[in-house]
Specification:
α11 links the parallel β7 and β8. The protein is of the alpha/beta class and 338 residues long. It has a 6-stranded parallel sheet with strand order 3-8-7-4-6-5. A two-stranded parallel ribbon has the order 1-2.
Amino acid sequence: RHGRARARREDLLHLFGDRLLLDLVVAASGGGVRPSDATQVFEHTRIQFGETAEQTFAHADAERLQAVDQRALDEGTPTEDAGTVDAEDFAPLFELDRLRAVAAGEPAASPRPFDCLVLDEAQELAPFELALIGRAVAPSGTLVVAGDAGQQVDPSAFFTDWPTTLRLLDAAEHDPVTLETSYRCPPDVTALGRALLGLPGGGLPTETPRIARARHGDECHLVAALGDALAGLRADDPHATTAVICRTPTAAKRLARLLGRALTVHLALDGEFDFGPGVNVTAVEEVKGLEFDYVVIPDASAAAYPDTPAARRALYVAVTRTVHQLILATVGTWTPLV
């Protein structure tokens, strides 16, 4: 880095460890940041700036601080993040340094330059994250940007359009390439995905060999039918990967618990996927960039997926995770999107 840094790790405590300030952020976000998000950030920051177990018990004999499994004493406990910094925290620190440098009329600290950077899921990044990445490209370096605006499902993100994203990356000269063909999904699933986003080539196909539909009168029948179908699929194709993708993590937790009474399933939240054969029960926000042989959407209902832009993008993400077959299921009224 070049220049004297004007931001330190301790600044993160003032940014994210002040509950009153976080409440102001929630109020100013227009619903993009929830009170529960502020609570989670505040508690996580409190732990990060707390002492590790080794520091707390530094007065004890060294051999008493050695775990039998050789791991740190905090590892696997609620305080395992003590003394750490998150990778996502470096962007706000660089931005804080830049703002202070501008105010002082001095050059800001620069990130390490790279001759080539590949940026995926660019639609998920905040403006100052994009700006920092742009500053990290060496003169005459190459920046490859990839993303899918249809997969922008984070309500707190600030994606506007690709020209704005490239401007924030300081990529004035660029060659845009649009991928017209999906090499993951069957053609009828691709057509459904395009229809959800209102893109050319879209269509809402009725039931096909690659798209199955099932409507149930109540949750009990849904769970029973889904359990039988998943068990049969496992027997027919024991090497298949299957994802049951719910709209929300709360719905995923409930369905995993119910399905778990009849067969073995893995609740995959916070990135904890089992990528071997079997069934992952998860939520839309977890599956961007992933693919599975079979995808089941158990809550393709009007309640879970109303006719809103956010719901369209969420359903688009869910349906386009499949390689072989998509199964849509609902209790009661179908979502108007299909």
